[in-house]
Amino acid sequence: MIREVRTTTFDASGHSSEKSMARLMISSPDVMSNKLTFHWGEDSDKFPLTFLTEGQGPTGMYEVNNVEYTMPVMGRLSFSDTIVFNAYSSGSYPGLGGAYFEIYMKTNKFTKQYGIVGPGGVRARVMTNGEYVEGRGWKFKCQIKDPSASAYVTYTDLAAGKVWSMTAPTTSESLSRGNKSNVQGPGKLANQISFNRYTKIIAGNMANKVTEFEVPIKGGGSTKLWINEEMRQFELTMRQLNEEHLWESEYNRRSDGSLVMRDYDSGEPVPEGAGVIEQVKDVNYDTYGYNLTLTKIKNTISDVMDGSTDNGKMEVVLYGGDGFVDDFDLAMKEDTIANGWQLAVGEQMVMSGGKYLSYGKYFRQYIDPKGNRVTVKNLEMWNNGSYAEMQKANGEIHPRTGKALISHTGIFLDQSVYDGERNIVMVNQKGQSEITGVYKGMSPVPASWGAAVNNMISTDEDKSSYEKKYSKGIGIRRVKHCFMLQAVLD
User: Fold this and answer.
1) What is the C-alpha to C-alpha distance for residues 473 and 242, in angstroms, rounded to an integer?
2) In whole angstroms, how far apart are CA 369 and each of 296, 308, 312, 414, 448?
3) Per mean pLDDT, which range of 11-20, 144-153, 263-272, 471-480 is the poorest?
4) CATH 2.60.120 describes domain 80-169
5) Cα 251 from Cα 282, distance rounded (Å)
6) Are strands 15-16 and 123-126 parallel, antiparallel or unpaired?
7) For the segment 42-59, what is each residue's pLDDT rounded down to a tens digit?
8) Are 109 and 160 in contact (CB under 8 A)?
9) 483: which residues sit within 8 A by CB, 6+ positions away?
C-alpha cells in the first residue's frame, strides 16, 4: 500500500499568484521525481456527448439566432388512442346482443366505418363520427364484431386510461358512403441554450513562474512553467462541467415563457436548456431494482427500436456508468446460464498468457431478433463526475457494487444519421458558440493564452484574466428513439 504523505490540495482564492503556489505546496525544494504524476488517469474519452456533436464538425452543429429554438419532429404514424371516460357501471354489459355502445376517447382520431381493437383483443366497428362532449372527450358509437348473442365488452376494457387502436374499415357491398382520412403533421420540440462562462485570473508574475518538476504540455513534451498545468486543469474543468451540463441541465422557462432566475449583478435572465437526461426521461423512462434482467433489457430495446419510422438498422449506443455496465453483463450471463448454455472456456472466459491465467470476458453488445445492434459504452461522468462524487460523499451507494447509485443508470441514444442530418446535435447561438478573451492588466500574459491576446480589454490592476464563454444546448430530433433505464432501490 502506498503511504500518502500529503493529500491533494485545493485552492479556492479565485486567482493564481506566488501565494497560491505556496498553498498548493508545489514549490518545495526537494521531490523524488521531476515529472508530475497524475493519479486520476487519462483525460480522454470522458466527454462522449461533446465528441458526438461538436467533435463531428458542421454535421454535428446546429446554429440558432436566439436563445430559444424549436426542432421539427415527425413521429411514427399512430393508430391508437386512449379512453378518458367510462359511461358504464361495473354491472353493465356494453354491446351485448349487438347493441351499440359508447366510447369516449382523448382525440377525434377514430373514423366512422373503421374497425377498432381493444384490450384482450376485443374487436368492434366505429359507427359514427366523433362528437365532442364537454368533460368526457370525443364520443363514438360502436358495435361489437363478435356475432355471438352473449358477446359484450367488459367494463374494465372501457376504463379511463385503456388504449384502443384502429383497424381497416369495412362497409356494405352496396350503397356504402365514404368516410374520411386523417393526416399527421409534424410537431415541434422546444428548447433553449445555456450560456456558460469561465474565468482564469492570474496576478503578479505568475506567467513566468517555474516549478522544480516538469509538467506535460498539450501536443507532447513538458515544461517547468506552472501556468501550463494550471491552464490544463482550467481547460479540463470547463470541458467536464460543460459535458455534465449537456446531460444534466433542466429547462427553466415557465409555461408563459418567462424566466425567474436572474443574474444577481446585472438582473438579466439566466436561461438553462433541457439536457439529454430531461429530454429522454420525459419520453421514455423505466426503472429496475437490485438486479437488471435480460427481459427488462429486451423490452427496453424493443420500445426504442419499435419507435423508428425509418427503414434500416439503427445505430443505438447504450451509455452507462460502471454499475450499469456491470448489471448489463450480469444480466446476459445469468440468462445464458439459466437457459443451459455454457460460457466458453479458452479464448472466451479463461485465457492463458505464459504461466498465468486471465479470467474475464464481458458482454458489451446485444443483438435483438430484428438484427439491430446495441453497443454498451461507459459514461465516465456517472462514475467520477460531480454528481457521482456528491452521492459517494453522502453514502448513496449501491450495496452490491459499492458505486454511486447514479452509476447504475443507462441511456439508450439513437446516434443515427437521417436524411443527412444527425439525430443528436449541438445547438449554439450564432457568433457565440465559443468566445475567448483576455482582460489585460499589469500582469504578463502567458504565451499559452495564444490568439486570445489579440482580443484584449484592460484594467489598471496588477492582474490579468482569461475569459471563456460558451453557448451550448443539445437537440435530439427523434427523442422517442431514446430511453433511460435507472436502478431504483427500496
Assistant:
1) 10
2) 15, 15, 14, 18, 53
3) 11-20
4) no
5) 12
6) unpaired
7) 444 567 777 666 655 566
8) no
9) 280, 284, 285, 286, 300, 303, 304, 411, 412
Q: How many helices (H) and strands (E) does the chain have?
A: 8, 28
Angle between helices 226-248 and 386-393 (to 10 degrees): 80
Residue with grid cell 436566439, as numbered in its chain? 66
How far apart are the C-alpha atoms of 36 and 77, rounded to whole Å? Answer: 59
3-state class percentages of the chain: helix first, strand second, coil last, to nearest 5: 25, 30, 45
Region 111-137: what's the mean pLDDT?
87
What letter does residue 253 receive in the DSSP assignment? B
- Quick: pLDDT tens for 187-245: 566 788 888 888 888 887 777 777 767 777 766 777 778 888 888 888 888 888 888 88
What is the pTM assigned to this prediction? 0.69
Cβ-count burial 220-230 (b if 16+ within 10 Å, e if not) = eeeeebbbbbb
The domains of the chain are located at: 11-29+39-73+188-490, 80-169
